[in-house]
């Protein structure tokens, strides 16, 4: 199993331009990891891929297919 230091972290495209309020996400086969980019050694949230998909669906809202 990979440690979180071996993960490839990606900063949210919605992060503040001043480097504040930033969230980073890293995916592994078993979990999606989320952390505060200002505190990379701090606490992290790990979600199952199904839980992450549900979260993204709920915050994305309906999408138009037109």
From TrEMBL:
<protein>
    <recommendedName>
        <fullName>DUF397 domain-containing protein</fullName>
    </recommendedName>
</protein>
<dbReference type="Pfam" id="PF04149">
    <property type="entry name" value="DUF397"/>
</dbReference>
<dbReference type="InterPro" id="IPR007278">
    <property type="entry name" value="DUF397"/>
</dbReference>
<feature type="domain" description="DUF397">
    <location>
        <begin position="7"/>
        <end position="59"/>
    </location>
</feature>
């Amino acid at each position: 199993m990979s440690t979180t230091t071996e993960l490839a972290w990606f900063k949210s495209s919605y992060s503040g331009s001043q480097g504040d309020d930033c969230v980073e996400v890293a995916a592994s086969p078993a979990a999606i990891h989320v952390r505060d980019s200002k505190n990379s050694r701090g606490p992290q949230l790990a979600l199952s891929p199904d839980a992450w998909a549900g979260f993204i669906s709920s915050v994305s809202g309906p999408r138009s297919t037109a």
